[in-house]
Design a protein that fits this description.
The complex is a heterodimer of chains A (469) and B (478).
Chain A lengths: L3 H11 L4 E2 L2 H4 L15 E4 L3 H14 L3 E4 L16 E4 L6 E5 L4 E4 L5 H9 L3 E2 L12 H7 L6 H4 L6 E7 L5 E5 L10 H5 L8 E8 L1 E2 L3 E9 L2 H13 L6 E6 H11 L9 E9 L4 H14 L4 E4 L3 H12 L1 H4 L6 E4 L2 E2 L5 H14 L4 E6 L4 E8 L4 H20 L18 H4 L2 H14 L25
Parallel strand pairs in A: 2-4, 3-4
Antiparallel strand pairs in A: 1-2, 5-6, 6-10, 7-11, 8-9, 8-10, 12-14, 12-15, 13-14, 13-18, 16-19, 17-19, 18-19
Chain B lengths: L2 H14 L4 E3 L12 E3 L4 H14 L3 E4 L16 E4 L6 E5 L4 E5 L4 H9 L3 E2 L12 H7 L6 H4 L2 H4 E7 L5 E5 L11 H5 L8 E8 L1 E2 L3 E9 L2 H12 L7 E5 L1 H4 L14 E9 L1 H18 L4 E4 L2 H5 L9 H5 L9 E2 L6 H9 L1 H7 L4 E6 L5 H14 L3 E7 L4 E7 L2 H17 L3 E6 L17 H12 L15
Parallel strand pairs in B: 2-4, 3-4, 15-16
Antiparallel strand pairs in B: 1-2, 5-6, 6-10, 7-11, 8-9, 8-10, 12-14, 12-15, 13-14, 13-18, 17-19, 17-20, 18-19
Amino acid sequence: MIDQTVIQELMGIVGEDNVLHNKADLQTYEYDAYLEKSLPDVVVFVKSAQEVAAVVKLANRQDIPFVARGRATNLSGGVIATRHGIIIELARMDRVLEIDVENQRMVVEPAVYNLEVSSAIDNLGYYYAPDPASGKACSIGGNVGEDAGGPLCFKYGVTSNHVLGMEVVLPDGEITWLGGKALDTPGLDLTGVFVGSEGTLGIATKVVLRIMHKPEAVKTMLAVYDSIDDASNSVSAIVSQKMVPATLEMMDNLVIQAVEQSMAAGYPLDAAAVLLIELDGLKDGMEEMADKIVEICKENNVREIKVATCEAERAALWKGRKGAFGAIARLSPNYMVADGCVPRTKLPETLRKCNEIGDKYGLRTANVFHAGDGNLHPLILFDSRNPEDKEKVLKAAMEMLQVCADMGGTVSGEHGVGIEKAEAMYMVYNKKDLLAQEWVKDAWDPKDLANPGKILPQRLIKREETHVS
Amino acid sequence: MSPKTESLTSDLAGIVGEVAVEENPQVTVAGKSPAVRVRPKSVDEVGKVLAFANDHGLGVIPTGSGTKLETGNPPEKFDVLLDLTGLDQIVEYDAENLTIAAQAGVRVKDLVELVGKDGLFFPADPSFPGEATIGGVVATSDNGPKRFQHGNLRDVVLGVKVVLPNGELVKFGGRTIKNVSGYDVTKMMIGSMGILGVIVEATFRLLPQPQREDVLVHAFPRLTDAAKLSGEVLDSVLVPSSLELISSAARRLLKGVTPDFAQGEYLLVVGLEGHPNAVARQEKGLTSMCASLAPNRTALVVGGDYVAEGKKPSEREVACEIHESHETCNCQTVTAQATVESLWNEIYNLERTAKEAGYPVAAKVAVPLSIVWEMAQAAEKSAAANSVEIAYKISAGNGILNLYLKGDNENILAVLEDLRTLAEKREGSLVLKSSPVFNGGFETWGDPQGAYVPLIKATKAKFDPNGILNVGRYMGRV
């Protein structure tokens, strides 16, 4: 528990009304979208970088851990205050500060919703590419923390490819800029290492985003298959024919069933997989490419393929994918989203193995995945009212990550490490690799106060020893 | 030979073998020469050499072909030149999954050729592709015009293996496009100029080769018109892969590719890639846009596949496609000796060509996109005022101005100071890329004061506590 005087001091910084410290209030802040809980000592609502800095300086002086929190959609426990302390609630820093079309940049505060960014520039003919499925609910600050992905990433890259600079409050409370509107800021790419650092290196208070001109044309197709292998082979064949679709999304039978129960997207209930393909770019040549894709799908035993001819049809084809996670609730009271990534051609084998793991534990596994970049999301269905289930789910998820690692992939594609996967880091890195990562954390946050206990498995070195012998 | 050099030679020969150690090599960095050049043949040997240097506090500068060795402040110590060209193996090439892992000493050109055989394409286009090694390209984050479409090194490198100063081999990242397992140290290694560790291997994302690649060249009598055109293109649905402006002085350095345009004009070089219909449509659109600002000055360099169709490049007349007949236009097609490849190669090698033509200093200005034109005008003005000759190219889609300067040192310094001040005022920077003449009289990276400078120092102290790698050469003399 932290001292009353600290609470008083926090009230002095942000105002009495902007500090929560009653247990009942704090309970709202003890969880995110992962399965664990931990109660913070105090929650402060901040409105500016200066307030964040003052709170962090206080935390630093008193050695109190702090966690930055945005919209709390995190799937790996990233904003759970595992060591209690202060939650710095950024929800009120939600302004779009600048739209700079001429320089193809936008500056926003951290709590701006992902979708809000594209909406704000839609009428100017621009958009922001990283498009996590939770775009309506998640904020840019969280996207920066997790290096969020989304369906468009196969062609356009993830958050870190679109964040060019930030104003950040460092773990000692200093405010600094990393990067900016221009490219190639001299010095180490600290922007690059900050993105995806899950709030463990400081708190972003302004973010400079790259915005892009909207493509002239989009062509969306939905292909239905009787086997996942045929769907996967289609993806490989499309890429080998020199085409780089913006999106290649796949869903398996269980997801199809859930989606159909929930919203009737028109997917056949007995299909093994549906593949959503979207081309974007200039309209010239697009019809020809679409025809070629239809041809490729046919060669790979597609059962049926629909090509959207207007925006309404496009929205209909996307509806099932956008609502897939939500629809899973039709099948089971709870589910856990696993997130791994493998080289694309290993997807069918990886999926088979993940399903076998599910079977072994008597758990159903539904699959939604970004087929272009090999990023899979096995959704493990369970019932949290059954305590044994939760344990089984965690074990199954870990085994699935091991499969991804064994296939030459990695244990987190876009959902972060948080507390969920800290130990899974050993599946892809050895102790020496992780020590070097710990040096990064040490250089930024020698007192280990910024969102401690995340990303790295239990601290490898004592604080006074900083190098491997 | 000093006794120190003698024992150093024999100690290092014990690690890498006698033939891999050269005493007193003919290499200087800001006037300093190393005692030895060491050329390890394996990652293991790199580890042992670094561990030895670390134990003895030797100053080490890693290098590939040395094309960018001049970038940086003068080294505080320089005992060993660590030549990585012996690490020349492709480690893992996975054409199906569009990735390749290669050792640091593999030359860009060789990698491009290798993947080209499978219809794939390396989405980075650094300077000096004939010599530059991938280790050097990653360590210096050097990339060219096409980064406008394909991204910078930080967007195409998926993972690196690094030998730390203590001799340990570690890996960061992996081989998948999406990877958020832990800190993205890969990004920090890219462009770290060898101050944190020696990059011995990198994994890159590959792309399918574009079905077609052409280059449209248009001459503009006035820079402001080129700027206007560039702004219009950037704010359109067109998707060129690059948008380069070559100053009239720089144009004289491009040998075989300049069409018969009037002297003294600026060349806008636009790369176009993709579906043949999309490329053709953009050619048409761009020619019209250009013609409305400065008529009759478009030329087209067409891609190899067109030649493969059995037509010579010169048979393709842009004019006929865009205008009703030849009589209403003077659009021309570049002569057959210019190919898309040769044009790009001349641009990639421009820094060297400029140096050979007597421009000893190269600098790079990076600013927000629209500001780059203001920087070019300021450069012309400052150069004229200081009796300095300049040649330059602008990457308009990236906000980058590469500048080559000729004149008295004092005068060049005055121009650089002017431009750095203006660039920083405009939220940008100026970095000195090569300057044999100043010997540290001008901070390579500028002198930033933000709270991130201590972070760079702290990071360096963690990774290289004994201070052996490229000491003193980086920002803040780290």
